[in-house]
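INFO batch 0412 | record 1 of 1 | parsing
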Amino acid sequence: PGQPMTQHTVTNIASCSKAFTAAALALLVQEGKLQWDDPVQKHLPEFRLADPWITAHMTVRDLLSHRCGLGTFDGDLLWYGSDYDDAEVMKRAARLPIRQRFREQYGYQNIMFMVAGTIVQRRSGQSWEEFVETWLLAPLGMAATRASAQRLPKDAEKAIPHIDGVAVVDHEFVACKPAASLYSSVDDLTAWMRMLLDGGTWNGTRILTEDALREMWRPHVSTSKQGTGPGT
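INFO prediction complete | emitting C-alpha cells
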C-alpha cells in the first residue's frame, strides 16, 4: 500500500481476459479439436438455456459474440460474490429469461465466456487456467501473469482497487474465471499485444495462425443507439 505502480505491477485485467479465452479456443481449432461453428452441446451435452431452440443451435462462435439472447450482464449475480462453481452457474443459467433475439441483438455476457472456458477444459483435459498459462502465457514469456488471483505467488507485486483513496477487497473469482480473472502487468501485456500485431507470431515462433486471428476479430453482431450494453 502506498507504493507506486510499475511496469511489472500486476492487476486484474477484467474483461480483457476474454481475449485470452478466445485465443485458447482458437488454439484448439488449430489443433482440430473443435470448430467455431460446432454446437455447444457437442462438447457440453449438459448445456441449457431457457429456450430449447437456442440451446440446440448455440455454437462456440455464438458464445463469444454477445448475441445469445440474454441481456447485458444477465446472470452475473449467479457468480459475482457467490460460492457457486462453474457447473452450478451453468445449471442455474438455464432458468434465465431470454430477453433478446438470438443472433440479432447484442447483450454483453460473462456467463457465455465461462461456458467457453468449460469447453477449453473439456477438449484439452486441462483446466482453463492451466491451458491459458501453458499454451499462451508461457510461450510469450509472460512470467508475472497468472490466470487468476489464487495462482499469484505470495510475493507478487499486486495492485489492489481503491475508492476515494481507500483500499477495497479485490474480488477473487470462484466461477466465471474465463470472463475476467487474469492478472497481468504492462510489461507482460506488451508481449501479448506484439504477438497479435505481428500476425500471431512471437520471436519467430507462431502462436496463432492468421486464420485464427481473422476469426477472432471478425465482426459478428452490430450495435446501435437502440442496442444494449457496452459499445452501443
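INFO post-check: Residues 227-232 have pLDDT under 50 and may be disordered.
INFO record closed
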